[in-house]
Amino acid sequence: MNRVLRKTSILFLVFVLALSTMSFPVFATDSVKTKGNTERLLVVFKSESLPGDVEEIVAAAGGEITYEVSKIGVIEVETNSPGSFLKEMMNNRDVLSIGPSQEVSLDLPEFNEVNEETTQTPPPINNIWESGYQWDIEQVTNNGASHDLYKDARSEVVVAVIDSGFDFDHPDLKDNVDLENSKTFVPGTEGVTDSWDYNSHGTHVAGTIGADGSMKGVAPGVTLRSYRVFGASGGAQQIWITDAIMAAADDGADVINMSLGGTRLLGQWFYTDPETGEKVRGGNSAADFVAYIRAIRYAVNKGVTVVSSAGNSEQDLKSPAKVADWQNANRNDGWEARGAVFFVPAQIPGVITVSATGGGFGTEDRLAFYSNYGNGAIDLGAPGGDLGPTRTEGSKYLVLSAVPTYMEFGGRGPEAEALFGKGYGWKGGTSMAAPQVSGVAAAYIAQVLAETGKKPSPNQVQARLQQTAVDAGKNGYDEFYGHGIVNAERALLNIRK
Question: Which intervals hold domain Peptidase S8/S53 (predicted)?
């Protein structure tokens, strides 16, 4: 981690997370503000390294550095006078772009409550995998047919989960989570809570990728490493995420899973100073978009396969200008985006972008009602869950996975604990679809390693998963499922369309 925290107390705006109802904000659009009129800005320099006098440059413009990722030339700055700071910094020939330091949210949609029976008379189910509740993993692994294929090589494959942390003592995860090399990027948690999960989202994602116990993930036995960027309430700064991407790549991760997202501009930011009414230009491209591009490129160049959720806003990703209109209509922070607005990291080059499907229990596959989609934007589909074909049929149509054993109701509703005991819960979203693909990617990397002694490149991994996906929707590529629904057995046996 290459970070600079020059304040002893960093305040950041977080969204309210209602675990019992799974009511998560989907995408953040407000810039992060701290005490008084102080605002946080993201500054990207033209060079992918920082000037030697960067502190003096920022101070002279009226700002203070709060965080830096020096390998890609990005800093976060706090200032009490954003208008004058912008004008001063944009006159510096080394500065490429400045924009609001936007918060990123955990990527889960809202579901209407369904009245479900919360008391169960039978004893808890001890073998979840054989109970039939894991319809998603059954689909992706062909009822477990891929689970034991090249399993011995999976411990040598590392999946970095950039999320809210793990329950490192969870009985279905503890044998293959890497506590020693996991990291936290949330200021104030270093050496205190570290990369433990106080939210449940990260543990749920990890379980889908590689759980090996009462429940099964897509790739049991794969090494899981946590890169914590979210606190208990579900808010994170993008610069923490880009820092985590860089760190995971430097640490030798083979796959990065990012079940998170936000909207970002490729165009022009304008800021209206509330005191003077002056509209100030913030750069020819969004600072945060450039930062993501640099971080993802860094990871891919180091051989990391990067997987992201597509997002849960029901948006057509092929129309970024319309997404810009949608975003501006929901802003009230003085910033205006002119140009094309993209969902990130989903639409960053080099990322495998995953839409969410519903299905299971004898129902047909369908694009989940909340999932983003778009011709050219979606690479693969994967189970993300919903509430059944009529949206009213209960939690079992969501994705069941691990949640922290030390939390009450880490997933939707109390019924999961009644059925399975502590440590399991239902969630739904493209957040749950992305780890299905990350699990298949990890299993395939293990196969190639076992057969050749080398690991495949990110391009080779993506090509294999797309060529062996199960076609859905229109014949061939389509805007909803991309190249099809990911399938582990087909990928490992090279069963093509």
Answer: 155-484
